[in-house]
Amino acid sequence: MRINPIYRQESRAGARSFKLPLIILGFNSVLAVVALLYMYSMISQVRLTAEIQYSSFLGLYSFVATMEFVLLLFIIPGLTAGSISGERERQTLDLMLTTRLKASDIVLGKLVQGLSTVFLLIVSSFPILGLVFIYGGVTMPDVGLLLLCYVVTAVLLGSAGLFCSAVMRRSTMATVAAYLVVVILNAGTLVVNYLADGLGEMTRTGGSAKAGWPMYLLLWNPAATFQTVLNGQMGSGSGLAPIFPQLDRIADMGPAGRFWLPLSMALQLLTAAAFLWGAVRNTKPGRRRRRLS
After folding, report:
1. What distances in angstroms separate CA 277 from CA 103, 115, 221, 265, 281, one per listed residue?
2. Chain segment 7-60, per-residue pLDDT in tens
3. Domain residue spans in the chain?
4. The pTM is what?
5. 69, 160, 207, 285: which has the fewest Cβ within 10 Å?
């Protein structure tokens, strides 16, 4: 089986550096501290009330899963945003393009390398996330669906980072642009829904709020997809639920509401494919690009 040469070279270089172990250590240290503090607070509550509330242990799963998702939002763009622009700054991109490597090989190799780091972070967090299995209430299919959500988010944000890296000539600007895409996808679509709800409250004379077209923007929102997964596993009120009250109106959206989760993941993967196509187009030799700095 042919292994992408960019991925192979990046993997060997990464295996010889301390960057990857430090990322894994920091990522899991934060999750472990958060989980242990949460468990300590639960045990203190049991000592005070002499009552064991098993719903609190499910809250541990929700809290750790949410914390892991937020950390991934910050880590993923940084892993890919400087991939192609960094090669351009080191003046090695043109050398790569003079070989048999295609622009698509370079882009996909960089993406797979970034995703492999993310997958390693996710897998290494299994023991911490698995603390909830001591008390029950969460099944392996639930965890599998959560991991699928993480993977889709990693592919989308990693592809967005590669697109910014291919368009921008400097890694600093590419990183800023990648995090701006994260803000637009997660916060921007949510702000549009809040504004639409506010305008609806001003113009509505009676009755409850109905789902409008801004709700469809949340299909591209990774945080909304993550919260939909948690809502299906634990009911509303967990994780990021206070930020996404609009998700309670999914049932009013007809067929889109019934297939909200698979539709959301499919659209995000299609968007990732569009980002990758744009990255390949802007990496091809001889293509004119504006000088962005």
Report:
1. 10, 17, 20, 18, 6
2. 777 777 666 677 788 888 888 898 888 888 887 887 787 777 766 666 666 777
3. 5-283
4. 0.86
5. 207
